[in-house]
Amino acid sequence: MLAGTTQIRGNTVSAPKKVVLAYSGGLDTSIILKWLQTEYGCEVVTFTADLGQGEELEPARKKAELLGVSEIFIEDLREEFVRDFVFPMFRANALYEGLYLLGTSIARPLISKRLVEIAAETGADAVAHGATGKGNDQVRFELSAYALNPDIKVIAPWRLWDLSSRTKLIDFAEKHQIPIAKDKRGEAPFSVDANLLHTSSEGKVLEDPAGEAPDYVYQRTVHPEDAPNEPEFIEIGFEMGDAVSINGETMSPASILTKLNELGGKHGIGRLDLVEGRFVGMKSRGIYETPGGTILLEAHRGIEQITLDRGQAHLKDELMPRYAELIYNGFWFSPEREMLQAAIDHTQKHVTGTVKLKLYKGLARTIARWSDHSLYSEAHVTFEEDAGAYDQKDAQGFIQLNALRLKLLAARERRLKK
């Protein structure tokens, strides 16, 4: 075998010298860490991101140290995540397949960005992730990494190793003295991904879309039927399309989303049971909870109603599905996403003002909105005397001009039927 190569499942592959691993501290990524060390004989750097998943991250440091890692990166990226990824996406009102608020999708480019940056800082020639060969995340991690560094090597162990069952994973862990929590020895009832924007639950008990998801799957929201019997009213302030305050209190992006999560969870807002079309071709069923994001989307649309011109608003809604699909498919760092972002951000120059919402039993509804940038003119729409603001006689010519082609089409149909 040539120097700098190794055998994996009968294939000779080039071995990296140093790998930066996206590391959660859980069993799977701990097994990946040890597998990288044993298969490649390389040094491994771990990177653990705090994106608001709500877990203590120091245990990840201790686990990495136990496995012989000397360079350990644990970073709080919550503000960057919301400011530079979540908020730009919400300016577009992005929904994949009309429903999904893209909570997992939007986190992957930030993780990839830091993996590539840490690789440059530490002299690593490869990065690695724990996404499986069936899902979308492998695509998102790798497209982002290659867009930022075309020379980076990306290692995806789930596509390489022969640890194809939970039993084999446990055996590998025991062989290499990787600590295994008691609840990991049996089959997990479902898989969870979480960050400040949402939780995503998939697999096992959720795989049959004909069965209702058990209530224990939901982690951030109370059942809407169990939510308070009294509604709660809040006001969200916006500047140039981004939320900046709640009930008059100016807050940071991550703090705003954290507070909206608390409010939405309390009122059972933001639950979604979705069968979606994965980029890799199959359909999958996921249970999503996006309490704060659901409130934020409703509020953003509320302020746009009075500050966006009709032409802007309608074209923006036409662009949105394409923009959402780009994010879902992993093309955040693509020229077409950046082009659409520039157009979307241009529309947000006057999206400034305040929205009042009613939170009640699983729903967030806009009930009032106001802005110094408003295009709404009461003088033009009033049913009362409008003091000459609008001449209703003008509508007759407008209608006749727009009806002309329809009248010509109808005349042709009548003529041909004779």
TrEMBL record:
Enzyme class: ligase
Any one annotated GO CC term: cytoplasm
Keyword tags: Amino-acid biosynthesis, Arginine biosynthesis, ATP-binding, Cytoplasm, Ligase, Nucleotide-binding
CDD domains xref list: ASS
Catalytic activity: L-citrulline + L-aspartate + ATP = 2-(N(omega)-L-arginino)succinate + AMP + diphosphate + H(+)
EC number assigned by the record: 6.3.4.5
Entry binding sites for L-citrulline: Y100, S105, N136, R140, S191, S200, E276, Y288
Arginosuccinate synthase-like N-terminal domain boundaries: 18-179
Arginosuccinate synthase C-terminal domain boundaries: 190-408
Cell location: Cytoplasm
Binding site for ATP: A22, Y23, S24, G25, G26, L27, D28, T29, S30, A49, G130
Known pathway: Amino-acid biosynthesis; L-arginine biosynthesis; L-arginine from L-ornithine and carbamoyl phosphate: step 2/3
GO biological process: argininosuccinate metabolic process; L-arginine biosynthetic process; urea cycle
UniProt binding sites for L-aspartate: T132, N136, D137
Recorded GO MF terms: argininosuccinate synthase activity; ATP binding
Assembly with partners or alone: Homotetramer.
Family: Belongs to the argininosuccinate synthase family. Type 1 subfamily.
PANTHER family registered for this protein in UniProt: ARGININOSUCCINATE SYNTHASE
Name of the protein in question: Argininosuccinate synthase
